[in-house]
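Help!! Second protein's tokens look totally different from the first
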Amino acid sequence: MKWNELFEKVKVNTAELGEMNDAYGKYERLINDRLTIDDGNKLKVIEDFVDTSNGIATIRNRSFRIKERELIKGPHWDNIKDLLKAIIGAKDQDKESKYEKLRDYIKQNVVKDGDSIPHAAILRLAASVMPDYLCTIAANNDMKNLLNYLEKNGLISNTVNWKGMSDFERSHFLRQEIQKDYNAYKEKETDTNRFRTCCCLLPWTIYEYFKSEDVCCEIEEILYDNYNVILTGAPGTGKTFLAKKVASFIITGDADFENLNGEDKVKFEQQSDFVQFHPSYDYTDFVEGLRPREKKRQVIFERHDGIFKEFCKRAATAMREDADESESDKRKFVFIIDEINRGEISKIFGELFFSIDPGYRGKKGIVKTQYQNMVSGVDEFKKGFYVPKNVYVIGTMNDIDRSVESMDFAFRRRFAFHEITATASQAMLSNIFPEIKDYMDRLNNAIVALDKGGLTESYQIGASYFKKIEGITVKQGQNKYKKLWDIYLKGVLYEYFRGLPNDEIEKKIESLYKAYEGKKKDQDKDDKGEDNDVNKDN
């Protein structure tokens, strides 16, 4: 991979960039004033920095706890401010030694009731006043993971001994590396503020991109061990989208299936297939069955392969052709079954329960199908049907679907299960309205709170629902988050509570809406805002 290819994949969203430009202006003014902040606003730089909506440094990554913030804002602030000023004013070769003085001072003095400031938070504090010099990622593990990803993908040379660098040196190295390569990528960029804010945001967006790729690696390993996996989770967690990403990652090495081109696009189309189960789906659709056709003005029935058997034929042919290839060069085939629990599993799979077992892949799992006597000619499966060893199956299902109870243990034993949580699905919200994650967090926390929703984490709502805000249009004076609630979220919650008395449902919905909007529990109940219409249709 090359840097320009990576930048294309993680393009900075315009709306988020606009917020960063505003935040960057605040920082620049504060830095130019060398932190001369009056007593009434003495910690503006810190308060802005930990603001989870402005995009600078934190990128909504909540690394500052309230206690840590209060410690910095305490009686040691004047000394901390002087140490920060010293770092800003130092020559490049002296900045780290000045930073070490700040770190040592905070570690030794800024302690209260056993609480202290962690190293990562101190580095973030320095980054908040030097966003042109230090990287916005301060946590040591996150920084190491990102540098590992970059090295693994050939974006930084393996001759660079970044593992031997201090945290401060690593932070500066990555910040300058990204700025250098992004400068070459955007060589015609004339808006210097836009350029700097892009460089400030890019470390986190790049890290989130590689983390999403890492999820693909994790599921890939499960498939190589077990051949079959089911992605489970709450509604809207992007299980189907992730299944396609994993398929693309296994087949082409690139998880971005929507933007494949050339040979990779052809490979993905030929080596993957997709089906969605439903109550009417059966064996004849999936494996094989009789289909009518007209012959000499008469209707006759002929045996036809189902979608899975046809797919396995392609895989078996490829496996035979690839016999002399190295293991890494052999073609792999991925079959996706969406909503796998909505079909009648025993009826659809039939005798394939045996062949699909990870222990019986290949010809040792061969079975005679219901229409085996009608298979003739040079058919790949003339002697019996088996699932080739280069076929991997990914299923998806919602944990809370009532049909989950109908899945028998014989089927469950043949599949590994991998949960996609609502929190994990937030990666898909990286490039839209920053505050949407806060709305999602507040609602999902309330869903599992005993005094509000009282449900389990399986009922938390995934990011796909919140991503719909991108397509919501509002008139002047309307609230897009209220509209998202009314159109997409409220109906799901009503379904969750179906069966309860109506008045109890209404109380729960109202409580969840207040949490979603960030309203405090003891807020004046006579408030005449739009909350009063929460349970009414538009």
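Here's the second one for comparison:
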Amino acid sequence: MCTKQRALPVQMALDQTQTFAGLGLLPSLCEACQALRLQRPTPIQQACIPAVLNERYRVVIGAAETGSGKTAAFVLPILQLLVRDPCGPFAVILTPTRELAAQIAEQTLALGSRVGVRVETVVGGLDAVHQTTVLERERPHILVATPGRLAAFIRQQQAADQTLLPRRRPEGSQRCRYFCRLRFLVLDEADRLLEEGFAADLATLLGALPVTRRTLLFSATMSRQMERIQQLVVAETEGSQVFAFDANRGLTDQGIYATVASLKHYYLLVPAAIRDVYAAYVLLHVVGSGEDAVLKMLRRRRRQREARTADEDNDDADNDHVGRDETNGSMEATALGAHIRFPNGETDGSESRSSPTIESSSASMVLAMVFTASCAQCAIFASILDRLGLPVGALHGRLSQPERIAALQGFKSGRHRILVCTDLAARGLDIPKVHLVLNFDVPRDVSVYVHRVGRTARAGRPGQALSMVTQYDIALVQAIEATCGIRLAAWDGPGEATSDNRVMRILAPVLKARRIARLELLERGTITQAELSDLGNPPKLARPRTASKIITKLSHTR
């Protein structure tokens, strides 16, 4: 009779003298780490790399704060064991989002560049037939996949197995021949993958993979669920021995979720009706050149529109001189266009989606991520910022996969200085230069807050997280402070965003941009009328509600 073992999380202190070679990794993998500027292994790497290399442990669980190098903690030992037995597929890495799958695939290729590893992503939004052809023809060593698309591939393979092998299988067996030599199943962001939404696909995967596989689970917010996850995984794997490492234990005196020490947490109290005005004001000062540059740009556009209108009126008055009017009209249009310059080289003074560049020194260029609670709010706020002249991209679930890839690549390259996104981008994405994370909506789940703010202050770099707190969010902020053991400070960044008079200078432009954005997105079908109703009606311009009274009221409740 097999005894099911459950391990308590291991405690390990960081050994400053430890090296990747000292952990037992091959020289080729150590060289790859040096090429990627990974100088010393982090605590989770020091704990989990030897545990994965030790085949005694059938289950390895690792929990550590964001930006601590969890991906390398499981990819490096898998690559080393792959060198000994280069079969395909050797490992399956599951992630909750397509973007995270693409990032892990890139990192795996980089770490395995000297051992000839073959990696393939299996995600939705791309041609399923092409993916199936590649998997069957090339048999990659490592598959990085989202549960839904991989489960669909497994069902297809199971149907083919049933056709090719018509003899009766053992009762209850759903094992897939394609994965007969699989050695590892990795659940990155395991707490998210074990939620109800992935239950059906995950059940298909667990039933199709060999029982002899080893299972690795990693996340930044598994402390609360460590015991439940161990019970679930041990129940799935008979006679397993579990190694569990929780770097978050003991980091704070109270709370369960930990954030990195180099991250500063701020709040800004704002009225819910004009939250986008305050958020735009902050971004104009953090990323752009302030509201003065925007107001100057808008005044220039208004003068250009008035000039075009006057020219058109003059042309209409001279319609009796047709030939002369045509010649002069074309010359006037050319002369007018020469004075209107946009970043893409266009010479059209209309209020197009191409926005004049906000000047900022490239040496001091900062990137900001803005998280919203819905696709509709994400699309609207990104359109508002675009109309204010900020270089912005949007990332949400209603975009096609090529559009999502383009938005993320544009942000990583610095072409987009701001990325407005949903929680689709909250987990795992490693973009080192992100300086500010702005929570447009305070998340209701504390773990979501931890993952959102984890997009900045990565690998020891400094970072800031700002939450836009309305009169309805006080309890959410208090829950975040209590659970994470932190204290949010009042925002003291550039621009004096706590000054209502300064913020109200961009009230009219933002409300106008909001109205236009909603109409355009509604017409294109990006958002629905029901979603607009949920977002609430815009306030009247004549009597805007300023934040002074709300700030005074809410300050007494803290």
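Reply: Different proteins will give different token patterns, so don't panic. The two ends are 57 Å apart (CA to CA).
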